[in-house]
Write the structure tokens for this entry.
Amino acid sequence: MTPADPPYPRDPSILRGSMQRRYSRRDMLRAAGLLAGTGLLAGCGVAGARAKAAPSDYWSHQKPTKYLDWAQWPLYIDTATVKGKTVHPSLQEFTKETGIQVNYQEVIQDMDSFVGSIRPVLASHQSTGYDLMVLTNGIYLTQMTELNYVIPLDHAMIPNFFRYADATAKNPTFDPGNKFTVPWQSGMTGIAYNPKYVKRPITSFDDLFDPAFKGKVGMMADNQDLPNLALVGIGVDPAKSTEADWRRAAKRLTQQRDEGLVRAYYQQDYIAPLSKGDLWITMAWSGDIFQANASTPGLDLKFVVPEQGAVVWTDNLCIPLYSQNPVSAMKLMNFVYDPKIAAMIAEYVNYFTPVPGAKKYILDDAKAATAKADRTSLEQIADSPLVFPTKAMESKLYRYATLTPEEVPVWNLIFEPVYES
Amino acid sequence: MSRVHADDASRLAAGGFRRRFGRLTGYWLALPGGLWLAIFFVVPMIYLLSLSLMTGDFIHGFTQTFHFATYGHTISLYHDQFIRSIMYAVIVTVLTIVLAYPMAYWIAMRGGRNKSSYLLIILLPFFVSFVIRTLQWQFILADNGFVLGTLKNLHLVGSGFHLLATPVAVICGLTYNYLPFMVLPLYVSIERLDSRLMEAANDLYASKFQALLRVVFPLTVPGIFAGVLMTFVPVASDFVNAQLLGGAKTTMIGNVIYTLYLTNNDYAGASALSFTLMGVLLIGIFVYARALGTKDVMEAAAL
């Protein structure tokens, strides 16, 4: 710096620039922005996400492939460990028989996020990368079929389904004529409790409202299981329920919450608090309780079908739009309805199997089992009403309410404020 | 001689360059930032605003109808969660200031050679996923976990006492997760202080506490402002803590927006709520900035 530097910039244009009124440009930009903004506001819309229905001759154009990408929920198929590697024996049989390699991916944690992740992909006409996926019946599955995001099945390719499937698996209310889906496994939403803390037998939906359990009751935070079990609880068949019934059920649930009975509304995470004693009694899924007891020594949680009834749901095999290997997916659907394969899966997952004929194979396996413990557990599975429901139990099981797209927002507005308050 | 000439020539050339392009240099330099803002902030904002005024449904699409009633409708449905979120955000912000100020002060003033190690310790939890960190609080606060279990064994609290699934747990989780965002700006502003100012205050017979209150604190207000910006705004729209640690009546507005968007596909309602939340937060921040004095905000922005 030279000592002669003047206190102001040497270049007069800087001085001029700093004194000029400079709002005009900004004002112009602002005006332009406002104009463009209003234009944009009025201009854009969101196109409907519905895709064109698959053409009726879709299947005649499909070629067999040697590959299959399968999106599945965790712990939902038979598993074995061979030389430190996890394998699925039923899928190995499938590969042996058909030569099709299965890329089995346990990517579905809940319907919300899974459907949320594939829907935008399908809306932009891209393949999801899956050829087969397992979706629970309910609002999402209905939405997927409404959107034409699942491909109608080729019934000629699944003779095993028509020969061996249980009557309840055929023609379900959520998918008349099995147009889009065949069941994978089914399960129940009922009540579970921890007998360490609950010292009396639990028999009724009303036990969730017992003031003795204040602050120790868990309910589900969703717009399917919570509303439907509540409807069953107040003595209404969800499939025949009306808006007035929905309001009555929601009122009951709101009361339960406002009286401080409910500790929290849970999504998948109720097992840990139930085991630890943070929860004493909760809404629960049948298979969860079985698996929790099986995987934790000393844990003895109980699952109850309330006297009013329980909700039965079905996870379904279906083929997403833009699937690359749809023929492989159909072959797998047919394969898992072979009673021998269905038995392999049922022995492991312990949900309702859609193949009653699997019972014989489970009993055969029990006879062949060398270890006594294996034999007893296989016999238990063959006799378990949680795998092969009895007629008495079937009469107490109710399906989810089937909602039209117009009814869904009404339903959500009634039930969401219960668990999102 | 020739060197002098060359110097003059280059200076002249530079002057010419500056005269011709100098006026625009600032704009060129700002271009990447401006583009970034335009693409990732302005365009989505306009889209969000536009979406909030549409009507329709996911299957058939949404059309622009300038349906302003969506705003009134969603706010009347979810004002409880809205007010709760703002309340939680205020409480959490105050808690983080109370906790972070002594921490930042101590590290800046007494940290000595280990300053960076202490800062690293504060940042260390950030190497673990947000969700996992929050889940740890489920273990810490479990009804019969090591904290409450011990207290219950000592009969300091009743056997029915619990923290999980209460607002206390949600506020604890939020405070824990956002504390570093308060510590860092405070540390920067305290670290920059000229220690001679404190000496001068002491020379002028200010006690240590008075020096802290009248000299250090006012000078670090910009740091507090930056910290408040970085905690208050994200806390008000957080949804993870309420989801994992909350109970029957701790739903925050973030959870509602999440459900509206992903479960119900009510894009218009979700956008309207998001936009309202943003508006309320902006107004709150501006009111707060006014209360602190605008000049300080500019300094804070320059931090």
